[in-house]
Amino acid sequence: MDIEKALLERRTIRLYQQKPVPVEDLRFMIDAARQTSSASNLQRLRFVVATSPSVVNEMLAKTAWAALVKPRRTPVAGETGPAAFIAVTVPAGFNHIVAADAGAAIQSMQLAAWSRGLGCCWIASIDKAAMKQILRVPEEREVLFVVSVGYPAEAPRSEEVHSVDQLAYYLDESNRLHVPKLALEEISVWM
Amino acid sequence: MDIEKALLERRTIRLYQQKPVPVEDLRFMIDAARQTSSASNLQRLRFVVATSPSVVNEMLAKTAWAALVKPRRTPVAGETGPAAFIAVTVPAGFNHIVAADAGAAIQSMQLAAWSRGLGCCWIASIDKAAMKQILRVPEEREVLFVVSVGYPAEAPRSEEVHSVDQLAYYLDESNRLHVPKLALEEISVWM
Question: DSSP code of A100?
Fold first, then answer.
């Protein structure tokens, strides 16, 4: 897939087809994360890839989704749930530089997934203590974010807006998600 | 450019050809940032794009580069300096979620640049107070990171390693930068 297409057309996916994700595609996602910029090249991120349905469903129960359109974009295990989760762990007591590294690696993973026909949702609203236990994360690390992965069963649409008062995403009468994005002119200054 | 190529082959570039960057390519970078995931779709990042040589050189003087190979990967204005900088600003008192958003947007911008034949360096070691003044950033915001942009005058190489004791990047006898990256097996657990 052309990178321009992926960068401009990728969208967050919250409803999934009930179809497994090839291990090779998940490995490509981790490989993309691995080659992402890392502050001082310290590579402090680690990844737990969960594909076993019992683990995936346990994780799903510890996540919260799309508050503004609840519960219509909260996937249901066995119906619209993801096929996999990738948890991103960081050293306990991490700082904002490590958080930025995590964001960069997650964006690479989302683009890698999209290029293989997969969709992701990057989730910060998680029960961290429960995730740590489910994934047997070592004492000295914590789960910062999780990313769900699966074949899309929705097609959200981005639309350009010009004010921060218009950022609320919404579902239209055909149950399609619309995601307002500020126009280039609103977010950049040139000098 | 194929996205697989960009995700796996992109490298940080710190030495640049003395050649301007097309405005269209910088706009594509901002567009890629604009379509990147943003927590709760709040879009709290703003971007200052500097291409005027006087501003770029003022900014360059307020950055620190590649500590382990100093000063051989510190670009020099008019010789190896970048053609542009993009500063990423965030609300003052930002949290780690906003920092993660910034990391994700920066990774999108770096991939967009790479697809146009450009290289970037994501820089956290900056004099934030000076940057704020140079870029006339509003009182209620701060400069979190800057990204340099230009046509590459170096070709760093990634190499696979298996221990965190081997992460120090280095220059070889031909002045090529080598960047050790942990193998997939070292950074991921599958369950």
Answer: H
**Would you call A121 helix, strand, or coil by DSSP?**
strand
B contacts of A55 (beta carbons < 8 Å): 191
pLDDT in tens, A97-156: 999 999 999 999 999 999 999 999 999 999 999 999 999 999 999 999 999 999 999 999
Domain ranges of chain A: 3-154, 156-191
- How far is Cα B57 from Cα B61, in angstroms, rounded to an integer? 6
Tell which CATH architecture fits domain A3-154.
3-Layer(aba) Sandwich (3.40)
Query: Any chain A CB within 8 A of the CB of B171?
Result: no
Q: Summarize pLDDT for B15-27 with one digit per residue, the tens.
A: 999 999 999 999 9
- Of residues A177, A146, A181, A150, the one with CA closest to residue A73: A177
Which residue, B63, B71, B164, is CA-closest to A42?
Answer: B164
Which DSSP helix (H) or strand (E) runs through A174? none
CB contact under 8 A, A182 and B43: yes
Domain B156-191 has CATH 3.30.9: no
Looking at the complex, report in whole angstroms how far the Cα of residue A3 sits from the nearest Cα belonging to chain B.
4
